[in-house]
């Protein structure tokens, strides 16, 4: 029979860290920590399979309740307490825990088991009536919200949920008693509140708050399962690409209390700094508090140790000095966990009357800066090997260190208007919006926005995603805003207490000045400073980033794919070299003709009606092209440069207004009417499938001649100047080998001519793009004429799917929503369809030429998943835009490791 409930406690556990799919991350690690002898409050985990079955069939699997009873009995035995007992009652927490962490997206109920029957016993045992009633009011607040409202599918309008209504009662009580802190409320206040809460719940929800421990437990479990399908959980999963089929586990665990007085505390920590990667134990704690108090950001948490102190937290006691023995025990656990998991851990702990309990450990989320630094340093420390280090950094995390920073000069002049905690590094500038919906809508209109909130909640994730940066008045480095922003590598400042936000009026007051919605501000998320206005952002200097260099060195050592770049201008080529490109995989030549000086000659050529006129026009372009190619070959020397002959349909060059028609007609000495007729004759119904690619060179060989000559003359000149250059001439859109042999003859003739004319000997290659299905199918024949292949996966996707690359936007969103497509095939290669053609092209091409050099220069060359595929398909290189070169280097190393 399938096991539904996994027990952990007292050094023994049914599960282990590798059971994440079944027990969720939290459950699996609680089991692991228990087995490691780390103090973990005993409990049990109900599996994700139970969740999936429950959500499908609305019932629990057979035998589940019996297993639950047995596990609960096990916990009771260890604790010497009984659940629902009037003398010595056990209280439990009920928490979610999915395979992949979804911070704050699902529900938790604490203090389950408090009833009129168990309260007196607990008071007697703890001798602390206030504590018990405080725990009870927390239970009622959470339970009514999570179980009685949310899980029951009740959706009150914003701000009118039961939790808010209860909070209003509590605020009213504080006002009446003239106090500000929850902790200032007396036992009698709490007792009276509890009574008011219960009445309100009956009134609003039409049901009494359950006064039976077992009902509470079952209700809590059910609510956690249901929260998997809560609105915000679903929207988070969509953004993070987490499958909806996974389900969550439920962890039922003995309650330990950090709010039992001044020898009790609670905290969260990272074994290293998750924002910088620095190897220091990093965290926050609060004395006499429960975990939710730290995460909610309602009290400013204390620094964990002396090393964590900042200017702003200097006056707050660290755990290191306040409870030195417990702190040392925590340090020992920290070291042990890093050694055991070989990774940075994110931990939660509670100290109950001087005794330390671990409530969670998991691999900590980190931003790109930290991920890169830790990967390199852990290799140096001998904690992980090089391959592990490479797999630790997500290629997209490199984006973060390549992201803009606030220009220091502008920043110095500006003078900050406020300072908060630096939760997400980098710079961000944008217009202020105060709600997540506004952020999303403004961004949709193409505006750059900064989401400003008192604090964020999981309900805000869509707006946070849309914003350039996030700024909150409340919260610490582990608050919701900080965690989510860090996960996405977004610029973020939290706990900026100088902001007085009025969300209703859509204004914020800072330092006496009022800012309205739409006003520009700039954030420096690296140091936590806020500036008025739109400050200049500058690109980061990767050259000086030592951690990045170390990681890239390892990547280069482990990858087998070469990385080239798509660049048409010397500046771009230089940028790509700085990023580590090993050549140009695609130099498109079409943009080179739009220069005012050249476009006229180009147009003359296009509308020419006989070869002589055409040749005359084309040859006017030769000096320009020679200079173009000289520039780009020199910029890449000594690396190879693949130059593609003219590709696009000619009518793109002759979209003319009336003035241009007159001018061109005059220039050519023909009538305007004649010119108009000629231009309209060039019109095509399907230009993408029309007179483009090598079809141009076949029809107008003088174009190929001119371009080939320009390439070789540039090569000869540079060679003479002592530069090592290597041009690779690439023929586009070949569908049959005869097209290629036709063009080859011209190109090779030009090379021979230039060599003879200049007396310079140089090397070059002629190859072709493989971007039509027929080219893949007949690649063995084409390879006879080609010295290299480069897959043009943009056109290959277009022609394989029959999706116009320019028009897919019209229906793609529907296809994605309906799950007809998993992702945009123009972004990530369709491995099963287009990919099969690529594999066929490789196999057939190399069946003719064993060592045929093959690359890819479509957009997919910069997409990590596609790079993995190209590695497996046996390509020699990928070519991508300059800014994706570092990502491609890392992704290529990961592909090599994954597919070893
Ligand atoms: C391609 O088709 O993949 C390609 C690289 O060429 P272009 O995008 O210029 O058509
Ligand atoms: Mg193409």
Describe the secondary structure blueprint for this structure:
Blueprint: E1 5-9, E2 12-13, H1 20-35, E3 43-46, H2 48-57, H3 64-79, E4 82-83, E5 89-90, E6 92-98, E7 108-112, H4 119-126, H5 129-150, H6 162-177, H7 187-205, H8 213-227, H9 231-240, E8 248-254, E9 265-270, E10 282-287, H10 291-296, E11 302-303, H11 319-322, H12 324-341, E12 345-352, E13 355-363, H13 368-381, H14 386-392, H15 398-401, E14 405-406, H16 408-414, E15 418-419, E16 421-424, E17 427-433, H17 436-444, E18 449-453, H18 461-466, E19 469-472, H19 480-488, E20 491-494, E21 500-502, E22 507-510, E23 513-516, E24 520-524, E25 529-532, E26 537-538, H20 546-558, E27 562-566, H21 570-578, E28 584-587, H22 596-607, H23 611-636, E29 640-644, H24 658-668, H25 672-681, H26 694-699, H27 701-720, E30 726-731, H28 737-758, E31 765-770, H29 773-777, H30 779-785, E32 788-791, H31 793-801, H32 812-817, H33 834-848, E33 853-856, H34 864-872, E34 877-880, H35 885-898
Parallel strand pairs: 4-5, 17-18, 18-19, 19-20, 27-28, 27-34, 28-29, 29-30, 30-31, 31-32, 32-33, 33-34
Antiparallel strand pairs: 1-2, 1-3, 3-8, 6-7, 6-8, 9-10, 9-12, 10-11, 12-13, 14-26, 15-25, 16-20, 17-24, 21-22, 22-23, 24-25
Helix pairs in contact: 4-5, 5-6, 5-7, 5-8, 6-7, 13-14, 13-20, 14-20, 20-35, 21-23, 22-23, 23-27, 24-25, 27-28, 28-30, 30-33, 34-35
The structure holds phosphoenolpyruvate and magnesium ion.
Residues 586, 588, 647, 771, 792-795, 857-858 line the site of phosphoenolpyruvate (PEP).
């Amino acid at each position: 029979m399938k096991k539904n409930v996994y027990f952990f406690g007292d050094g023994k556990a049914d599960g282990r860290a590798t059971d994440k799919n079944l027990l969720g991350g939290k459950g699996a690690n609680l089991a692991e920590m228990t087995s490691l002898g780390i103090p973990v409050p005993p409990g049990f985990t109900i599996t994700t399979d139970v969740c999936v079955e429950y959500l499908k069939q609305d019932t629990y699997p057979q035998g589940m309740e019996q297993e639950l009873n047995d596990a609960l009995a096990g916990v009771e035995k260890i604790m010497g307490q009984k659940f629902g007992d009037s003398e010595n009652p056990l209280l439990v927490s009920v928490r979610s825990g999915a395979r992949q962490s979804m911070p704050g997206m699902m529900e938790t109920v604490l203090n389950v088991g408090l009833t009129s029957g168990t309260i007196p016993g607990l008071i007697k045992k703890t001798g602390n009536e206030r504590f018990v009633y405080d725990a009870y009011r927390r239970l009622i607040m959470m339970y009514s919200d999570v179980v009685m409202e949310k899980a029951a599918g009740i959706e009150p309008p914003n701000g009118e949920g039961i939790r808010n209504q209860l909070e209003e009662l509590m605020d009213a009580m504080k006002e009446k008693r003239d106090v500000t802190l929850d902790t200032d409320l007396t036992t009698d206040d709490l007792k009276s509140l509890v009574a008011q809460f219960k009445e309100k719940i009956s009134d609003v929800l039409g049901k009494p708050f359950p006064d039976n421990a077992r009902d509470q437990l079952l209700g809590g479990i059910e609510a956690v399962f249901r929260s998997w399908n809560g609105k915000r959980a679903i929207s988070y999963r969509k953004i993070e690409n987490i499958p909806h089929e996974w389900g969550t586990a439920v962890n039922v665990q003995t309650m330990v209390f950090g709010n039992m007085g001044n020898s009790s505390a609670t905290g969260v920590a990272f074994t290293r700094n998750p924002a910088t990667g620095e190897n220091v134990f990093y965290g926050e704690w609060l004395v006499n508090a429960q975990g939710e108090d730290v995460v909610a950001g309602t009290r400013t948490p204390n620094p964990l140790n002396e090393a964590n102190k900042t200017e702003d937290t200097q006056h707050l006691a660290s755990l290191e000095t306040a409870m030195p023995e417990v702190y040392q025990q925590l340090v020992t656990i920290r070291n042990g966990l890093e050694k055991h998991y070989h990774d940075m851990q994110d931990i939660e702990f509670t100290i109950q009357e001087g005794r330390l309990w671990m409530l969670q450990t998991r691999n900590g989320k980190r931003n790109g800066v930290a991920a890169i630094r830790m990967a390199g340093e852990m290799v140096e420390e001998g904690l992980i090997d090089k391959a592990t280090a490479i797999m630790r950094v997500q290629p997209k995390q490199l984006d973060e260190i390549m992201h803009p920073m606030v220009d220091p000069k502008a920043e110095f002049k500006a003078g900050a208007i406020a300072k908060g905690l630096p939760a997400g590094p980098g710079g961000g500038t944008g217009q202020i919006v105060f709600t997540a919906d506004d952020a999303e809508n403004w961004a949709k209109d193409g505006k750059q926005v900064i989401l400003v909130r008192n604090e964020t909640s999981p309900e805000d994730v869509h707006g946070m995603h849309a914003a350039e940066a996030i700024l909150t008045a409340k919260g610490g480095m582990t608050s919701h805003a900080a965690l989510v922003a860090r996960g996405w590598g977004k610029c973020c400042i939290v706990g900026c207490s100088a902001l007085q936000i009025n969300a209703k009026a859509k204004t914020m007051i800072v330092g006496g000045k009022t800012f309205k919605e739409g006003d520009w501000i700039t954030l420096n998320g690296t140091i936590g400073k806020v500036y008025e206005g739109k400050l200049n952002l500058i690109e980061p200097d990767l050259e000086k980033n030592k951690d990045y260099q170390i990681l890239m060195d390892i990547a280069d050592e482990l990858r087998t794919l070469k990385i080239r770049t798509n660049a048409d201008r010397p500046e771009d080529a230089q940028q790509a070299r700085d990023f580590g490109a090993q050549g140009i995989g695609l130099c498109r030549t079409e943009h080179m003709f739009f220069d005012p000086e050249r476009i006229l000659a180009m147009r003359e050529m296009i509308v020419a009606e006989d070869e002589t006129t055409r040749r005359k026009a084309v040859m006017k372009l030769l000096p320009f092209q020679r200079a173009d190619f000289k520039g780009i070959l020199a910029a890449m020397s000594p690396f190879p440069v693949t130059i593609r002959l003219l590709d696009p349909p000619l009518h793109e060059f002759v979209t003319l207004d009336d003035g241009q028609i007159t001018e061109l007609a005059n220039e050519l000495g023909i009538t305007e009417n004649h010119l108009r007729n000629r231009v309209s004759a060039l019109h095509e119904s399907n230009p993408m499938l029309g007179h483009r690619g090598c079809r141009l060179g076949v029809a107008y060989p003088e174009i190929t001649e001119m371009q080939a000559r320009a390439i070789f003359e540039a090569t000869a000149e540079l060679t003479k100047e002592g530069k090592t250059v290597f041009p690779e001439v690439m023929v586009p859109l070949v569908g049959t080998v005869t097209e290629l042999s036709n063009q080859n003859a011209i190109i090779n003739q030009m090379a021979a001519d230039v060599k003879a004319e200049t007396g310079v000997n140089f090397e070059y290659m002629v190859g072709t793009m493989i971007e039509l299905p027929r080219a893949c199918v007949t690649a063995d024949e084409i390879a006879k004429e080609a010295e290299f292949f480069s897959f043009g996966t943009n056109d290959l996707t277009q022609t394989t799917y029959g999706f116009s690359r320019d028009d897919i936007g019209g229906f793609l969103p529907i296809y994605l929503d309906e799950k007809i497509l998993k992702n945009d095939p123009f972004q990530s290669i369709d491995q099963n369809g287009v990919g099969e053609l690529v594999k066929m092209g490789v196999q057939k091409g190399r069946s003719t030429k064993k060592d045929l050099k093959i690359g890819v220069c479509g957009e997919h060359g910069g997409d990590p998943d596609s790079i993995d595929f190209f590695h497996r398909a046996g390509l020699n290189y990928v070519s991508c835009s300059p800014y994706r070169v570092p990502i491609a280097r890392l992704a290529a190393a990961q592909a090599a490791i994954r597919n070893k």
